[in-house]
Design goal:
Helices cover 16% and strands 40% of the residues. By secondary structure, it is α+β, with helices and mostly antiparallel strands. It folds into 3 domains: 2-135, no CATH class; 142-267, Jelly Rolls, CATH 2.60.120; 283-403, Jelly Rolls (Sandwich), CATH 2.60.120.10.
Amino acid sequence: MGFRQRLAGGIVALLASCGGTNRTPAPPNASSLDGGSEEDVEAVQIQAIAAAINEFSPAVHTCWARGAADDYRLEGQVVVALEIGAAGTAKVALIEESVGDEVLTDCLLSLWESYRWPEVFAEGDRIQLPPFDFVAPTAQYSVALAHAQRHSLAAGKLDAQILINEANSGNVQAAMTVLSAREGVNVPLHTHSSAELLFVLRGHGQVLGVGGAQEVGPGSAVYIPAGVVHGFTQEGDETTELVQLYAPGGPEGRFKDSARAEGTTPFAGELPRRGSRPLVRTAASAQVLQIAGGKAQVRIIIDEAMSKDSSAYIGAITAEVGAEIPLHRHANSSEYLLVLEGGARMQVAGREIQVQAGDAIQLPKNVEHGARIVGTEQFKALQFYAPAGPEQRFKGAVSAATSGRR
């Protein structure tokens, strides 16, 4: 993905020169323009516009990324006009757009409102920037937590940020969300048509289900197979932050629209005394295995052998700077990562992407991928497979073909 912007003298419209105010252009800073013609000043103005667009190019891409955090198929054109005010400020207006995304357009308008124009422009000058053309990628492999919209639930006591789902990745095998629970929020008993995994990043709570409540805190992982009754209660003064994965995705849709209840069913009545209950384990008690020639390690927190369910797996990866994960693919499973610390340079489907703390990554089945840990600090990430299976290669318990790696 990228945005294309055509910049030429015939496209940049200095509207004040077309029937605008009859004024003497403000002299530019360059002494070579002292006493220059209006054409000379306009040429410098066009250069100033080109410099501004070049400077803001990364920020414009970030505006697209914020919109694409909801839907990676975001594309179209946006045209913006400005009127120069005092001290280089500008009043910004949206002339036309075909992207149909307020997050993107509002971001662009805010961006250009923040820019301070040089003295080659005078108060009252009107500028129409060349069109911003946005092109959707064939797939989106990473989404930053900072770009994900925050959906408020439970009277403002629960926030949900959907990082990965079908709409922004095209992948149905799982959906990843970060939840922030405050002030003793209580999630009533319910069931899902998908398996659910939770990992507590900070704070405390209780997971409710058959057999009573189970305490969870930082480093706790919870596995809830499809159809198993469960609920959650936040505890303590500190906000409880959890990473949630549904496998397959679907139930996360209710976070964006409370009327969408697909995949979630409230539980009515008394809990039975016996039956399946949520499985709780801690990362600290997980089996630790060395990989990448001893430069990285994996903690197998919950796999199929523990959960008795093949829908998903959760583990944790720690790697030293310089560690390399060679190119490989998983025949049947998608891999999902949430980077907690450090950074990496990843190869995904022949493309290079940089990832850092706060980034969620989805690696679809049969897509070749690998990574090299870069930067100055240790790399840490949560790792999920949906369905479970490829993690077995870490134990050497099954062949690469059986684990889905080739």
